[in-house]
Amino acid sequence: MTVRALVTGASSGLGEQFARLLAAEGYQIHLVGRDSARLAAVGQVCGELSGEPAVMSRVDLDEEESLYGFCRRVAADPPDFLVNCAGIARAPLFWEDSDKAQRELLTVNYFAPNCLIRAVLPALMAKGEGDILNVASVDGLVPGDPDMGYAASKAALVSLTRSLSIQLAGTGVRVSATCPGFVPTRIHETAGLGKVTLPWFLWRSADTVAADALRRHRRGQVVNVPSASYRAIYRAYRLVPARWSAAVVRAFHSGSIEQPTGVPADGRGGTPVRP
């Protein structure tokens, strides 16, 4: 019997790595993204790894009609494993960004996963097994990122995952949120963000993060941080007094990303593309 996995944001970065790993396990992969050429290239690799031809869907998750239509199709033919990996970031200062851009960010980062989870859950619960893995961010656990809308969207996804894990206990459906730190993907470049300057130990490759996230998901770690460095940061944040942690977070973010230049007048800071 063919098992199937649906991965959003699958054209590059973490989404591509999740697709490759699940394909190597024998899943038939359904790739979702906006870049048709990249999806085709990833789909070819996944087909070779799994022995099953990959399915590819070009979907604009930030557009209501496109998202709702896709969720209806998914509900009619749900996968066994859902990976919500699509995400966007924003370059302009939060209070200078446009309403439209912030709405798109919240839609892609939170409401699209919300919609897809509701599309697959009835079938997974009915058969008593299945997997949902949400890609959040350490910014959803430790507040203070200048991209406040992004951090808030990831915090919402973490909270949704925690609530789902409680409500789905005993159903056979596993759910988790993985919260990586900095990963060298296209999300910073395509959001128009400046150069990220961090020491080597605060970076982890996309393939390593994806493999770690899958292991922790299957171990039942509902909310996990797939990096020893960021796990240490998160533990320290929870232990030290709030006024100290706030000062450290401010200092960290003030020096980690150079401020973008040439932000367009509409405040979009470049065209965000799903990683």
SS-based class: alpha/beta
Poorly predicted runs: 257-275
Please state the oligomeric state of the protein chains shown: single chain
Q: In which order are the strands of the major sheet placed?
A: 3-2-1-4-5-6-7
The CATH topology assignment is: Rossmann fold
Structure write-up:
With 275 residues, this protein is α/β, with parallel strands linked by helices. It has one domain: NAD(P)-binding Rossmann-like Domain (Rossmann fold). It has 9 helices and 7 strands. It has helices at residues 13-24, 36-50, 64-76, 99-127, 148-167, 187-191, 206-218, 228-239, 242-256, and strands at 4-8, 28-33, 55-58, 81-84, 130-135, 173-178, 223-224. The chain has a 7-stranded parallel sheet, sandwiched between helices. Helix 1 (13-24) links the parallel strand 1 and strand 2. Helix 1 (13-24) runs parallel beside helix 2 (36-50) and helix 1 crosses helix 7. The two termini are 31 Å apart. Residues 257-275 have low confidence and may be disordered.
